[in-house]
User: What shape does this take?
Amino acid sequence: MNIDHSVYPDLAEPPMELVSMEDKMDYLQRICGAFDFGIFPEESDWETFAGWKDVFDRFPIADSPGYHTFRHWYRWEPVPHEKRIGIPAWKISDINQGRIDLCEEMV
Assistant: This one.
């Protein structure tokens, strides 16, 4: 498995392998978070996650569009969605395209 270390900016040493269920969940959450903000997952993530249904089922991320996209792609049964409180999808797109400065939005 190739681990995308770019999703670990908070760690000086990103994990070299994902062994425990909690490590896998942390990685899943990081990839889904990036996906939710418009950063498309690597092909290796799609291949890896195809075998992680147990992780997806045990730790649902109900407010993540990326999480639901993975479940839909693999044709797994859906889980209930939660409405996201925070930045609307159109604003995320505007931020990614440079139409909005996130720092100015926070003021």
Remarks:
- The CA atoms of residues 23 and 64 lie 18 Å apart.
- The chain is about 50% helix and 0% strand.
- The mean pLDDT is 87.
